[in-house]
From TrEMBL, chain A:
Gene3D superfamilies: STAS domain. Coiled coil: none annotated. This is Anti-sigma factor antagonist. Belongs to the anti-sigma-factor antagonist family.
TrEMBL record, chain B:
InterPro entries: Anti-sigma-factor_SerPK, HATPase_C_sf, HATPase_dom. The keyword Transferase applies. This is Anti-sigma F factor. Pfam families: HATPase_c_2. Residues 84-105 are annotated as: Disordered. SUPFAM superfamilies: ATPase domain of HSP90 chaperone/DNA topoisomerase II/histidine kinase (SSF55874).
Length: 118, 138
């Protein structure tokens, strides 16, 4: 894996940006850093305000990854935008529920539900 | 049927080495018949425990090591992770689910370990954690 490789796939659907994680595991420190930078770039460099994070491929994530998601949420809210999370498998959803982050994030069942009314 | 095992390994303060140990333990558990649905929590707890030891315990100091002792008897897996840092008091870690802490980007590792494991204990110094997971009923 090269340092510059994209860790998220970007798709534009109307005025919404859908960012889909490439990795099954969001664990490794360097990888989390890279993913964080690429996510933050969507807001800070590209000026996107409606963002859906699609977790379809993600099988594991650590508390360090949760930290990046929280920072991302703050950055999006700071520019008056909205962040939604979708397609989180039950194991991972439990991580959000245990940490009460399911209350902080706007989590939808799937991409269709995340795009609805956005 | 279930295969028991026990081993100890010492690694430098390098998260890549930490992941190798983690994968090794998980593969042995899989071979040893540990239920698939219990492995998610074990993996998560190992990730948090080993990263904590390397980053917060040893402060990523390349001259300090982390030792991992793992035993499995077919029913439960016990992993002891010890770093060479000054230790910490787990009682000092604020509740990450409190409203005032919900937006803090860190401080959730310990809580996740406790949520997914059967037992999480620290030595008095706070530089060794014991993670135990009993296989759940199938």
């Amino acid at each position: 894996m090269s340092a510059g490789q994209r860790r998220i796939d970007i798709e534009e659907i109307g005025d919404v940006t859908v960012a889909k994680f490439v990795d099954k595991k969001i664990l490794d420190e360097n990888n989390i850093q890279l993913i964080g930078n690429q996510l933050f770039g969507l807001v800070e460099e590209d000026g996107r305000k409606k963002i859906v994070l699609d977790f379809t491929t993600v099988e594991y994530l650590s508390s360090a990854a949760l930290g990046k998601l929280i920072t991302m949420d703050k950055k999006v809210k700071a520019v008056g935008g909205q962040l939604r999370l979708c397609s989180i498998r039950p194991d991972i959803y439990e991580v959000f529920a245990i940490t009460r982050l399911n209350k902080l994030f706007d989590i939808r069942d799937d991409q269709e539900a995340a795009l609805a009314g956005f | 049927m279930a295969d028991s095992f026990e081993f100890e390994v010492t690694i430098p303060s390098d998260t890549a080495k930490g992941h190798e140990v983690q994968e090794d333990i998980l593969q042995r558990l899989q071979h040893g018949g540990f239920p698939e649905h219990d492995l998610f929590g074990v993996k998560l707890a190992l990730e948090e425990g080993i990263v904590n030891a390397i980053k917060h315990g040893n402060g990523l100091d390349p001259n300090k090591n982390v030792s991992v002792h793992c035993s499995y008897d077919g029913e439960r897996v016990i992993v002891e992770i010890e770093d060479e840092g000054p230790g910490f008091d787990p009682g000092d870690v604020p509740d990450p689910t409190a409203d005032e802490n919900l937006q803090k980007p860190s401080g959730r590792g310990l809580m996740l370990m406790k949520a997914f494991m059967t037992r999480v204990e620290f030595n008095d110094k706070g530089n060794r954690v014991i993670l135990e997971k009993e296989r759940s009923a199938e």
